[in-house]
Amino acid sequence: MDLNIASLKAAGAFIAAPQKKEVSWHSNGKPQKATVYVLQESFISLTQRWDAQDRGGDLAAQRIASCITDKDGVPVFTVEDVVGGPETGHGPLCAELAIVLLAAIGDVNKVPEGTLEKKSNPRKSSGTSLPSSSAPRSRKRSKE
């Protein structure tokens, strides 16, 4: 494929509509379920997160706020909604819900296994094993 806008559009290289995901967590000891829509991360969401990091912002909250949307792609949360406070009238999201939302975001944005080229070969065993020892290994450098 020649790299150009038309071929990238055809290959799906630009973010698509949000993906529907079901999430589950517990609140007050009871299981909760919700349907969320997860927007694939984009160049813009990455640069916004870098900017937030430079300003000392909360990167996880920024990620949730930029990726969790309604079915039309409109964000459900602001960063302030995620971290809570007096201006929002509520506290921060519970950890379990934050974790399942981040997991859903990770699932939508994961790189399929085998897509990236491996840079190193795994070590091969010589077929022998070293005796186990509780003594610490020497930190002396070997002479070359």
From TrEMBL:
InterPro entries: Phage_TAC_12. Residues 112-144 are annotated as: Disordered. Pfam families: Phage_TAC_13. It comes from Pseudomonas graminis. It comes from the Bacteria. Residues 123-136 have a biased composition (Low complexity). This is Phage tail assembly chaperone, TAC.
